[in-house]
Amino acid sequence: MRVTLSDNETLVPSSGKYRNWRIFNVSVWYIIIAVVSISMLFPLLWMLTIALKGNNDVYKIPPEFFPREFHWDNFIKGVQAINFGPLFLNTVIITVLSTIGSVASSMLVAYGLSRIRFPGRKVWFYLFIGSMMLPGIVGLIPLFHLYLNLNMYDTWFPLFLPAFFGNPLYIFLARQYYLSIPYSLDEAAKIDGANHFTIFTRIMVPLTRPIWITMIIMTFTASWNDYLNPLVYLYTDSKWTLSLGMASFSGAFAGVATTQWNLYMATNLLYMLPPLIIFFVAQRYFIQGLSSLGSTTQK
Amino acid sequence: MPEALDIRMRKRSSIRKQTGSGREALIGYLFILPSIIGFSIFVLYPLVMSAYYSLTRWDGVTDPVFVGFKNFVYIFTKDPSFIPSLKATGLFALMSVPVSLIVGLLLAVLLNRNLPGIKLFRTAVYLPAVLPSIAVLTLWKFIYNPQYGLANQFLSALHLPTSTWLSSYEMALPSIVIIGLWGVGSTMIIFLAGLQSVPKELYEAAKLDGAGTTRLFLRITLPMISPILFLQLILQIITALQAFNQFQVLTSSSSAGDHGGPGFATTVLMLHIYQSGFGSLSQFPQIGYASAEVWVLFILIGLITIFTFRFSSMWVYEESNLD
Q1: What's the rounded mean pLDDT across residues A127-156?
Q2: DSSP B265
């Protein structure tokens, strides 16, 4: 809509035509954004309706959107079908270990790279972030055989041990953040007799809270969602993570000819819940952390 | 004499530095030790070993047999499944990367306003990106179910033709690209941050000179966020070429137990490598061959990255490009 002005008129914020144009503009925007948001969330909504349907409702043709009855017991049946409880516990343990390892080691390494003056620190920094360019696949087969030879196949070690050796992306992010903290703090602490480790634990860790909270969220999500590594390294069912359990769900239900999708969707919702909760709780930090990858920091 | 004084002071301070710096260096290296070890085990070791494996024939059980470059020759000349696999990977990258960059950017522009409720909408768009990939993939597997899935339900409600989605040769890859689009929220957030870091004065100055919306976008917004665009482009290409989860989970045919989708349409390289390296129902593990494939993919990624970097100076705006 083009606002037409007569000869004597100008588009000034106080003019009536400007207000009309603005109201129109904003309303159209809200409509578009509502449509976009609803379409993004719609599959999840649909998932919920499937999860609540009874067995006969799911396979109706023509399909109905809302369930006839609300089968809340689908959640319980689904959980039982794939041994959800133990798998959940497995995943939690692995994820917690990975998170502690990644965050602690990355913060330590980034501290060393940014706040200690030693020869070669720039070279090592570039080497570390350069390793990000290395596609993960190159390591897949050699590392698999390495773990095999170390008798770590079918254990959880390959899943959380690497975390303790630093994560290049986190090191990069943390170092960026560290560089913005003035060195006068370090020097003041040194005068008071602190060594580097004390400075790290007493001063830097509290100061860098947004960064390591972001790291915790990112590691948690990455570990909880990981599929390839558990697929490769875990053989025994009882040691599986939730991602493996959920992927094989159709296999577990393949006792019948078709997968029981309503039970599956119910369990799927439960599987999605922890990352969702973490996301909502720590949303502020998460978006802040991701944004640091996007904004141009001039330091 | 000032020069003599300088020399004496310089000597004194350099001596002081030498006794202090040795200990500093040790502590420094202690702090970064985890990453040094990590680099050796998880970067150097795989590079060397996979290069070695790629020159052997090995089934994982018996001893490896050195065969020189035979694996590579076989890949490019005799293997009937490699070239289609390469094609599928290339097509997938070509489809998913531009689409997600454009959609991510558009969404970021759309959500770059300060109107009430904006945070809610941003969360809504970003939400699917947080979900576990297996959860997402299995959900979409059902959405694409020809009889009971949401996709065909939606289409037939609008009286549009339906599709067999994942089993159809033409629609298999696009179906998977659409799933990727559902997770475009993370790209959007990064672009949003970039958009918000463009100095407002630039826009004001341009508007004073009479620039319209399109001009503003093309001449100010795009150049100012081009470094972020560039970074995202590289990262997305690298990720797209290594995509695995979606192809492994969505294209299993229960009868043969093999994955790969209709006529290799969705057997991307990573899946092909996984099948070669760990074996499937129809073949023993061929670790040497899989390693060779890994190196082909690696070199491919490297070449494309370098190529993109070379072209970047043409359209990426950096402070140094001014002179």
Answers
A1: 85
A2: T
- Provide the shortest C-alpha distance from residue A293 to chain B (in Å): 7
Bridge partner residues of B283 (DSSP): B280
Q: Where are the domains of chain A?
A: 16-74, 76-294
**Is there a contact between A65 and A253 (Cβ–Cβ < 8 Å)?**
no
What CA–CA distance (Å, rounded) separates B111 from B15?
Answer: 59
Q: What is the pLDDT of residue A193?
A: 86
Q: Is B140 on the interface with A (CB under 8 A)?
A: yes
Any chain A CB within 8 A of the CB of B50? yes
B52 exposed, middle or buried (CB, 10 Å; 0-12, 13-18, 19+)?
middle
Q: Counting Cβ atoms within 10 Å, is residue A114 exposed (0-12), middle (13-18) or buried (19+)?
A: buried
pLDDT digit string, tens, across residues A283-296: 766 666 666 655 54
**Taking CA A77 as the corner, what is the angle to CA A73 and CA A80, rounded to the nearest 5 degrees?**
140
Within-domain flag for B143: yes
B241 and B308 in a single domain? The answer is yes
SS3 B239: helix
pLDDT digits (tens, 9 = 90+) for A205-224: 888 888 888 888 889 988 99
Best to test chain A binding among B139, B270, B298 (most A CBs inside 10 Å): B139
The span from the CA of A96 to the CA of A262, in Å, is 30
Q: Which residues, in sequence order, are CB contacts of B285 under 8 Å at separation 6+?
A: B59, B60, B276, B277, B278, B279
Minimal Cα–Cα distance from B323 to chain A, Å? 19
The tens digit of pLDDT for each residue in B34-84 reads 999 999 999 999 989 888 888 888 877 778 788 888 888 888 887 888 888
A166 and B38 within 8 Å at the Cβ level: the answer is yes
- Helix H or strand E encompassing A74: helix A73-81
Does A76-294 carry CATH code 1.10.3720.10? yes
Tally of CB atoms within 10 A around A217: 22
- Specify whether B19 is located in the same domain as B81: no
Q: What would the pLDDT profile of A67-88 be if each residue is shown by its tens digit?
A: 777 778 878 877 777 778 888 9
Per residue in A18-52, pLDDT (tens digit) is 888 888 888 888 899 999 999 899 888 888 888 88
Number of domains into which chain B is organized = 2
Are B43 and B92 part of one and the same domain? no
What pLDDT digit, counting tens, does each position of B157-203 carry? 888 888 888 777 788 888 889 999 998 988 998 898 888 888 888 88
ipTM: 0.75
Q: Which domain holds residue B6?
A: 2-53
Range list of H helices, A132-256: 137-149, 157-160, 168-179, 184-191, 196-198, 205-207, 209-225, 228-233, 242-247, 249-252
Q: Determine, for residues B192 and A291 on separate chains, whether the beta-carbon distance falls below 8 Å.
A: yes
* The pair of three-digit structure tokens given for residue A109, joined into one six-digit string: 């390494």
Token digits of residue A157: 């070690």
How many beta-carbon contacts under 8 Å exist across A and B? 250
The model scores a pTM over 0.90:
no
Element spanning B160, H or E: none
Considering chain B, what is the average pLDDT of its residues?
81
